[in-house]
């Protein structure tokens, strides 16, 4: 079974600075997808960024970027120019690419709580 | 377009009771998944339905059941509630052929 590990229960960052959240995963599959989700106090799980395992190029979405190291099974999230609104729980998630598209569940890590200091 | 909707937002039940949670997916999405998120943990997969058929089930007891209707909305049912069932229940939908899941705001269930 696949597992996702987030080793940082809590992180903090000064406003406008950069922070990196760590995630490692364990799988024997070659076809899979990785995601970072943000969950603010409102509870809504929001997709931040995604990465296809077959792509070597790291995904980027505005201030959010990932460092995908497939051989090391590492998938870290970098938030640049941190804003107060970035404060939330961040979850790393894995999804198998095996089987019918859209029919495999997400496997989540335990999350990292990010605080942004003004 | 409206996002994934869930009802109710909150509810409180007593041990031994039954509960039904509801989810409406984004228009055009045919796959619905249910997750349980206990306080301080990441979501855990409960069920996945695609085209009204169960396509996956997580490690949850038979007290948990679900179904998907012709309009692709879904219900999660939990019988004989236990204190440990207290959690945030999240529903997520996805478009056919897409690997992205979009979540609803969740239902907070408290069992006393």
The chain pair forming the largest interface, with residue counts per chain, is: A-B, 27 and 31 residues
N/C terminus separation of chain B: 37 Å
Instruction: Say how many strands of chain A there are.
Output: 12
Shape of chain A: globular
What is the residue-averaged pLDDT of chain B? 94
Q: Describe the sheet with the most strands of chain B.
A: 7 strands, mixed
Strand content of chain A: over 45%
Question: Span from first to last CA of chain A?
Answer: 41 Å
What can you see in these coordinates?
The complex is a heterodimer of chains A (118) and B (112). Chain A is mainly beta. Chain A is built from no helices and 12 strands. Chain A starts with a strand and ends with a strand. The mean pLDDT of chain A is 93. In chain B, 38% of the residues are buried. Chain B is built from no helices and 11 strands. In chain B, the strands form 2 sheets. In chain B, strands 2, 4, 5, 6, 9, 10 and 11 form a 7-stranded mixed sheet that branches. In chain B, strands 1-3-8-7 form a 4-stranded antiparallel sheet, with no helix packed on it. The mean pLDDT of chain B is 94. Classes of the chains: A mainly beta (118), B mainly beta (112). Chains A and B meet through strand 5, strand 6, strand 10 and strand 11 of A and strand 4, strand 5, strand 9 and strand 10 of B.
């Amino acid at each position: 079974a696949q597992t996702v590990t987030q080793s940082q229960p809590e992180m903090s960052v000064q406003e406008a600075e950069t922070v990196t959240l760590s995630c490692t995963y364990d799988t024997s599959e070659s076809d899979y997808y990785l995601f970072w989700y943000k969950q603010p106090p409102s509870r809504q799980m929001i997709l931040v960024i995604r990465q296809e395992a077959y792509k070597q190029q790291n995904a980027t979405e505005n201030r959010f970027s990932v460092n995908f190291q497939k051989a090391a099974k590492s998938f870290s999230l970098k938030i640049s120019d941190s804003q107060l609104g970035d404060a939330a729980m961040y979850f790393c998630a894995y999804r198998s690419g095996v089987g019918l598209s859209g029919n495999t569940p997400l496997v989540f890590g335990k999350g990292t709580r990010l605080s942004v200091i003004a | 377009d409206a996002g994934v909707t869930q009802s109710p937002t909150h509810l409180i039940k007593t041990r031994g009771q039954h509960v039904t949670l509801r989810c409406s997916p984004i228009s055009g999405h045919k796959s619905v998944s249910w997750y349980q998120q206990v306080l301080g943990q990441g979501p855990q997969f409960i069920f996945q339905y695609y085209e009204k058929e169960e396509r996956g089930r997580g490690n949850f007891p038979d007290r948990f059941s679900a179904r998907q209707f012709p309009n692709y909305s879904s219900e999660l049912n939990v019988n004989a509630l236990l204190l440990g069932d207290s959690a945030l229940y999240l529903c997520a939908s996805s478009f056919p052929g897409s690997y992205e899941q979009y979540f609803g705001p969740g239902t907070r269930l408290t069992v006393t």
